[in-house]
Model the fold of this input.
Amino acid sequence: MSAPAPFEKQYPSVGPLIVAVADWFRKHRGHHASSELADCTPHDVERIAADIGLTVADLRKLEEMADDPLLLYRMLTALKIDEVELARADPAAFRDLQRVCAMCDSKRRCDRELQAGDAAATFEAFCPNALTLKSLT
Done:
């Protein structure tokens, strides 16, 4: 298993669960052509989603995007936002930022902007977390 994600230290009971679910998706997606959730009953999918605090639609989208990188931590660094302080001061906002980032459709552009060092100036044009991030800067 890889090193703990920074948010795991702030959320010892939830962080490992999120990482475990994401790792499970990554591991099993390579072995099955179809969705792992397709093998579950609708009731089981609803229960899984509820257990980790997501809607069924969000859980399905998370499964689709499980292999995509979470760029939030790099974006926070680019915007000079202390992720540890944010997680401590407003854990609900931090979890929401993570959820939105995980399901973002602009990851390629975000990665390009971060690599180029332009993200702090351009994130409002593409980032679905822009309003929240702007309020934190």
Q: What stands out?
A: The CA atoms of residues 10 and 84 lie 7 Å apart. The first helix runs from residue 6 to 10.
